């Protein structure tokens, strides 16, 4: 399984993805699910992927090939993020055409979800949630975050804390707590977690970090949060029924 | 959808279920999902149900009919909780035989999960998770709680707080927080929530309460928890990346 979060904030983006993949319980491996595309000073894009690993890798391969071949339309020359998201959707459709029927012969769904975000000079920062069908939706000020993969365990804390006006630091802290909750409740999601922070109009990545099992900041957040929750819990008066 | 939790503790049981059912977004209704069977001083049982409402009601109907007909084996005369859980499983299999094929004609799964718990004099208190196939598992000191329905949003807080030694009051408080998190993140689960507390060897229900939208204790837990979380969150130092 996988857990990825993308948050669009007034001041920029926070994106995070875990690195665990599994095909059954006896085939667990580590693969990065975060890919960046950048022309410093001109465009910065980040893509998080969930789903069938062969499908997500094939889609990335198509996108990279189009860049290498300097195709008329590729992620490094389109002029806006909507067109960039369309290119990702089109790559998904290409892989669907190649693979979906063969997967069906083996009772395997064609399964991919993508969080795709970034900024191209002249446009604001944008965040998209791209589906297996290649179509997509865009985040808004009212709905500033998307999750893909194993989304439910980590949603309550996002719902309580995240809004469009939230600072990048707070959003990053919240994302780490959201991953901690998910990792505690589901063995199919695990550290390391890749996190990326992008500040509007910088047109290069502000912060890109792999949070490993011994990451001092993650361990400190985990400890403070766990202890704080237990303290808050203990301070809530008991029910008056007894 | 539905959310139900059952917790087996050293001192007794805490059971809770929401009351929202929906068949599509335009057919939302309130139905209780908690049923009790009791012979005061001799046995106390509680059953929480999730799944297709017609199936869960049919199963309950069979169990009540067997009691009314004073069948050789019914929930009010079996001598231990394992046999009681087997009767519930057999009722599920009876309804499966009657309805499953007809449901299939309408592309509807035969879908029911049950949390069934209680105590019969001479035995300890026991908690079972009964599946659509009529088979079941029993809670243990190591795995003292089960959830059915929309389980993921409310699992992290249970994972952090609940263990077998936990007191009944703390478990009830934790269950209310678990419901609060679920209700906030998923519109298909909502108040009122039925909660029941059973103290070992009492052989009658200790506390059985419908938590309505304006329940003062629930509102106080919700407020303390929300404010407490925000305070803990604010107190965690920010990341050192900026």
TrEMBL record, chains A, B:
Pfam families: Proteasome. SUPFAM superfamilies: N-terminal nucleophile aminohydrolases (Ntn hydrolases). The keyword tRNA processing does not apply. Signal peptide: none annotated. The keyword Cell inner membrane does not apply. Keywords: Proteasome. One of its GO terms (cellular component) is proteasome core complex. One of its GO terms (biological process) is proteolysis involved in protein catabolic process. Coiled coil: none annotated. InterPro entries: Ntn_hydrolases_N, Proteasome_sua/b, UCP009120_prtse. This is 20S proteasome A and B subunits. It comes from Methylotenera versatilis (strain 301).
């Amino acid at each position: 399984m996988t857990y990825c979060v993308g948050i669009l904030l007034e001041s920029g983006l926070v994106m995070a993805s875990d690195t665990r993949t599994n095909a059954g319980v006896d085939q667990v491996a580590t693969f990065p699910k975060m890919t960046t595309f950048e022309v410093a000073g001109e465009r910065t894009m980040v893509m998080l992927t969930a789903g069938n690993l062969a499908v997500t890798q094939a889609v990335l391969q198509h996108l990279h090939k189009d860049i290498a071949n300097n195709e008329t339309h590729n992620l490094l020359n389109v002029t806006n993020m909507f067109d960039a998201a369309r290119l990702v959707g089109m790559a998904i459709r290409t892989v669907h055409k190649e693979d979906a029927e063969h997967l069906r012969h083996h009772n395997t769904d064609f399964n991919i979800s993508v969080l795709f975000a970034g900024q191209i000079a002249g446009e604001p920062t944008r965040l998209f949630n791209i589906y297996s069908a290649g179509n997509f939706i865009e985040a808004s000020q009212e709905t500033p975050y998307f999750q893909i993969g194993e989304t439910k365990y980590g949603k309550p804390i996002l719902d309580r804390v995240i809004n469009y006006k939230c600072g990048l630091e707070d959003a990053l802290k919240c994302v780490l707590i959201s991953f901690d909750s998910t990792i505690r409740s589901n063995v199919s999601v695990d550290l390391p977690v890749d996190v990326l922070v992008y500040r509007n109009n910088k047109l290069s990545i502000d912060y890109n970090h792999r949070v490993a099992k011994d990451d001092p900041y993650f361990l400190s957040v985990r400890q403070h949060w766990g202890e704080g929750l237990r303290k808050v819990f203990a301070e809530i008066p008991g029910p008056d029924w007894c």
